[in-house]
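Exercise: predict the fold of this chain.
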Amino acid sequence: MINRFDRYIFFRMLKITLFILLLLIFIFIVIDFSEKSDDFTDQGATVEQIFEQYYLNYVPEMTRLVIPVAVFIACLILTGQMSDRFEIVALKAAGVSLYRLLIPYLVFAFIAAALISYLDGFVIPHTNAKRLEFEHEYLKKNNQQVDRDNIYRQESPNTLVRVNYYDAQDTMGYQIDIYKFQGDSIMSTLHARRMKWLQKKQQWQLVDAEVQHYNNRGFKKIELGTQDTTLNIYPRDMARTTSDIYQLTYPEAHNYIQSIKRSGAGGLSLPEIQFYGRLTYPFSIIVVTFIGFAIASVRRRGGKGVHIAVGLTISFLYLAFMKIIEPFGSSGEINPLFAASLPHLFFFVTGIVLLITAKK
């Protein structure tokens, strides 16, 4: 009997979650389209392009964002129905503990979290990149480039690169200086008027370059003209944006952060908290399952209306907590990993407390 109950809970959670998920995505698309349709059409985008290139690539990201809410509401609805019908009371009278009743919910939550983690790690970044490219083309949306002028990068322990201005769209740097050190002394300086990234060669091309080598007797200047060179710096190191992390798979995002550390660039806390936020976000599905089950397993006056009202309040507080603490992590005032994990840990403990204090 209990195995049949487990299957019933699992598939009911699946059906209700999918229904709510589709409903939320539909509502989001309708609202978003009503706000942006004029902007799209003014820039020449057709309806077919809008839905195929923009919203079709937006659906995976929307799914990731609203899946915790869908699971939470599904848990409240299903458990609330069982509580109102005294099914939970009957199962507890038969010797089934409240903790045992939670198992099929947790199985569903863990599977959903694993699926979303995989999608976010290896599928959604590619669709995000296509969506953001469409936004940049048709909405003329600012890509929020972090670095643009007077850029310094640590190419190696003994080499410093300075770029006066960098054009991310053309992958072109202007007025470049490369300093090589030995201890506290400058061994050479290289100046180039331009630096262009050669995609096929995966190299930089220096234009109108000259180098000065220093020694105890002075320096020697050598005209280099135009030549290709290999630097341990890539275009992504030069033109970071606030949305970079969301366009990279988990391994790519990790390498991206390591690349920033290696290059000596500032503003490391922002991509770190974005990356850790992505890693910890699927855990919220498990957290809201604990909270939803603990709230809805106890019959209350007002029925499902009270459950949904309490659920929406907790969802708002959960989201507000994440948004409030995120700036502290991105500014470096709080460790980014701790800032990304704290809301989930806090509400996980809240869910455990609610479950323990619920009537057994």
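Check your answer against the key: The radius of gyration is 27 Å.
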